[in-house]
Specification:
Layout: E1 7-11, H1 16-28, E2 36-40, H2 44-61, E3 66-70, H3 73-77, E4 82-85, H4 91-105, H5 117-141, E5 147-150, H6 155-165, E6 171-173, H7 177-189, E7 196-203, E8 206-214, E9 217-218, H8 220-228, H9 237-246, H10 254-257, H11 270-275, H12 282-302, H13 309-319, H14 325-337, H15 348-357, E10 361-368, E11 381-389, E12 392-395, H16 403-425, H17 429-437, H18 439-444, H19 447-461
Parallel strand pairs: 1-2, 1-4, 2-3, 4-5, 5-6
Antiparallel strand pairs: 7-8, 8-9, 10-11, 11-12
Helix pairs in contact: 1-2, 1-15, 4-5, 4-19, 5-6, 5-16, 6-16, 8-9, 12-13, 12-14, 13-14, 16-17, 17-19
Length: about 475
């Protein structure tokens, strides 16, 4: 591997729009413009579409990468210096539908279901074994000093499991919730996002801003004033309420956060859903939006300028899909976004550039807690600032979090730990334990309901789960 042509492998490259965004970031750097890009997916059609998009993108950027596409994972990983992972095991149909519909029979409702809760548990159980198999291939085939960049949810459980399994190719979990929420709050405060300075730490989707400032001025009093004056955006009421309760702002969206706790979704309290504007079944709705949008998106990817964003929006609005209105706007806006190449807020390209060029950067990564946060369990997956340079991704020590924040995070870490342990010890009973200790599940169901629901979910997922869960 030469300095000028490091091999960057994208696993799950058939996520074509995300692949386009990541490659747009990577190939825009002069030091990476001649990189070897290996695309892999199990869907040959989507893989070929991503190859076409990657080649067109390179031309637009004046880059000269070596682009290959293969359905052979081992070939794609052979000699890779960086591996970017964006897979989804089971897809919307059948797996996500199962994750939502069976719990609903028991009176357990979810919003997103990909991080914690019973949906997050099931997604982890079907994804961890697949990623562990990939990890074994990476350990055997990747270049010395290789790094695995994981974008797959449930981020904390997967990153915890992968780093427990291997030190040969470490995994850093990447999300955009830290920098994305900072931009949202900047808009709420009518301030330029690039002038905001913050320190954030915790666990993925439940990290909190320990400091949030503009030119040395603490912005928390202004954020609290937004809540006190009832000026929080309608879609963000949960997090502003948690700011008032805990004193700090959380990184993941209100629709996510509502299901990580026992306070917002209760089957006998519909007024809570209305008061905090909690969108039940939001993720299945988003999947339906993008099922309908995909033919338009594919047309645009194949022939830039061919799709009509207004027509797509009209079609989606006519379909009356149960989803937050901004998701419909976002799908239509995506078509227009595909007509330009702009740097995204994702960290993947930045990490690769800093490691290859030696130019330092700071990102927020999900890494093992090795003396980084004192009042979270050692070894669990934490999200902290990391320095990146030629020496790799170097997490920074945060110390102790405010005790109320760490206590809330530990209720989520308990579930993560039990799921990871279930996979490594091949113990089905730990799946029941994880569901029993999940804050939202425990607040809604009794023990017999939890066991019956877990049994039904495991049976419905069938062969997509590891053998020890099929008995």
């Amino acid at each position: 591997m030469s300095h000028r042509r490091p091999k960057i492998t994208l696993i799950g490259a058939g996520s074509t729009v995300f692949t386009r965004n990541l490659l747009g970031d990577i190939l825009a750097w002069p030091e990476l413009a001649e990189a070897e890009i290996a695309l892999h997916d199990i869907d040959a059609h989507r893989l070929d579409l991503s190859r076409q998009v990657a080649e067109r993108l390179a031309g637009l950027l004046g880059a000269r990468p070596l682009i290959t596409a293969t359905t052979d994972r081992r070939r794609a990983l052979d000699g890779a210096r960086f591996v970017i992972n964006t897979i989804q095991v089971g897809g919307y149909r059948p797996s996500t539908v199962i994750d939502f519909e069976i719990p609903k029979k028991y009176g357990l409702r979810q919003t997103i279901g990909d991080t914690l809760g019973i949906g997050g548990i099931m997604r982890a159980l079907r994804t961890i074994p697949v990623q562990l198999a990939m990890q074994r291939d990476m350990d055997a085939l990747c270049a010395p000093g290789a790094l695995h960049l994981n974008y797959v949810n449930p981020m904390a459980m997967l990153t915890w499991a992968l780093n427990r399994a291997s030190t040969r190719v470490p995994t850093v979990g990447l999300c955009h919730s830290v920098q994305g929420t900072a931009h949202e709050l900047a808009r709420d405060l009518d301030l330029p996002a690039d002038e905001i300075d913050y320190l954030c730490a915790g666990i993925n989707h439940m990290a909190f801003y320990l400091r949030f400032e503009h030119r040395g001025q603490d912005l928390y009093p202004r954020l609290r004033q937004i809540h006190a004056e009832d000026r929080a955006p309608d879609w963000n009421r949960v997090r502003y309420e948690m700011l008032a309760q805990l004193g700090h702002f959380a990184t993941e969206s209100s629709e996510h956060f509502a299901e990580y706790t026992p306070w917002f979704i209760k089957k006998d309290r519909p007024e809570l859903l209305e008061r905090f504007n909690v969108p039940l079944d939001e993720y299945p709705g988003r999947c339906q939006v993008y099922e309908r949008a995909w033919p338009h998106i594919e047309r645009e990817l194949q022939q830039p300028g061919a799709a009509d964003p207004a027509a797509l929006r009209a079609e989606l609005e006519a379909a009356k899909i149960h989803v937050m209105p901004r998701e419909v706007r976002g799908a239509a806006g995506l078509i227009e976004g595909l007509r330009t190449v702009n740097r995204s807020m994702e960290y993947g390209g930045t990490i690769i550039h800093s490691m290859v060029s030696g130019q330092p950067s700071v990102i927020y990564g999900n890494v093992p807690n090795r003396q980084l946060i004192d009042n979270l369990p050692q070894g669990c997956c934490v999200e902290v600032p990391c320095l990146v340079d030629a020496n790799g991704v170097q997490p920074t020590r945060v110390g102790a979090l405010p005790v109320q924040l760490a206590a809330l995070m530990r209720t989520n870490v308990n579930v993560q730990e039990l799921v990871v342990e279930s996979v490594f010890s091949q113990r089905r009973d730990h799946v029941y334990h994880a569901a029993m200790l999940d804050p939202h599940t425990a607040a809604e169901l009794d023990l017999s309901q939890i066991r019956a629901m877990v049994d039904e979910l495991l049976a419905a997922h069938g062969d997509i789960l590891p053998e020890y869960l099929r008995n």
